[in-house]
Design goal:
Elements: H1 3-15, H2 20-23, H3 48-51, H4 55-88, H5 96-121, H6 131-143, H7 146-169, H8 175-205, H9 208-229, H10 232-237, H11 243-262, H12 264-272, H13 281-288
Helix pairs in contact: 1-5, 1-8, 4-5, 4-6, 4-7, 5-8, 7-8, 7-9, 9-13
The protein binds fe (ii) ion (2 copies).
Length: 292
């Protein structure tokens, strides 16, 4: 790990904290033309059914799906905090890794509070994660070794970062959400640098089998995240007929869109340490539609 780089990241985190309560203009209400999620990221855009939605249904779809996304972030970050809290107990208090993780924990807790605040500002009501998500999330968080959990975390951070970039750069995005994603992008950028630097050593030592399993851990983390965003209940809420059928076509549509928009950075990362091989490439193509 590059100690000097991590020291610099700790310093920035201490000297330039971004407090959601000050950084985000919470008092602003959405304007008449504001949107909550760019069309490129919603699950129905690109399908015929989307063209038949009323403007209000389109806006509501964006609001509910955005709420779902940030509620999923908050839950995932809370779980990662549980792991980091256990992990720092194994590290000396004065080590650079311990000190950075403390900063990361502080920031991640602020993010969770910020996401919760944004959800109530939007009058959102997130759909609870499914039983299988809950089980897999909690099980892997508790029992996977640290290197696998860091692999998983950096993959989720890289993917959600791109997602946030699309959202914050949309010209008519509700300003509260724009600032929320700006803040998240800045702080997650530091977490990604740290984790990548930490993982360099793990990946350098890894042989064929280990690189294969890292690649699978990442793949499943991304699948895990992607399947938390599209929810049948949302189609019911916006008054669509036959929500079960809509859910099926929306999931398929979102799989394609997600692969086109969100996988670039993570594919680059996995490629850096030769995570694509005979045993993994087909799964990336099949499960994530990834062009690898
Ligand atoms: Fe975060
Ligand atoms: Fe993070």
């Amino acid at each position: 790990m590059d100690v000097q780089v991590i020291e610099r990241l700790i310093k920035i985190s201490k000297e330039h904290p971004l407090l959601p309560e000050k950084y985000i203009p919470w008092e602003l209400e959405p304007g008449a033309d504001d949107i909550f999620l760019p069309e490129i990221l919603n699950s129905l855009h690109g399908l015929k059914i989307y063209d038949h939605l009323t403007p209000t249904q389109k806006l509501e779809l964006g609001r509910h799906e955005l709420v779902q996304v940030i509620a999923s972030y908050a839950w995932g970050e809370c779980m990662f905090c549980l792991f980091m809290t256990r992990h720092i107990l194994t590290l000396p208090l004065d080590s650079v890794e311990h000190r950075f993780i403390l900063r990361e924990l502080i920031e991640e807790f602020r993010h969770q509070e910020m996401f919760g605040e944004a959800i109530s500002k939007l009058g959102g009501s997130p759909v609870k994660q499914s039983g299988i998500h809950k089980f897999l999330g909690e099980f892997s968080n508790k029992y996977l070794p640290a290197d696998y959990l860091f692999m998983g975390s950096v993959s989720v951070e890289l993917v959600t970062d791109i997602y946030g970039n699309y959202a914050r750069r949309a010209p008519n995005i509700y300003p509260v959400l724009k600032k929320m994603f700006d803040l998240h992008n800045i702080e997650e950028g530091r977490h990604i640098l740290f984790t990548k630097s930490l993982l360099k050593t793990y990946a350098a030592k890894a042989g064929y089998i280990k690189r294969t399993s890292y690649s699978y851990v990442i793949l499943f983390n991304i699948l895990f995240v992607r399947t938390m965003y599209v929810k049948k209940e949302i189609f019911e809420r916006i008054g669509l007929e036959n929500p079960d059928r809509v859910f099926k076509i929306a999931s398929k549509n979102f799989k394609r869109k997600f692969s086109d928009t969100c996988l670039k950075d993570i594919i680059e990362f996995v490629d850096e340490w030769n995570g694509f091989n005979l045993l993994t490439r087909w799964a990336w193509r099949w499960v994530l539609n990834a062009k690898v």
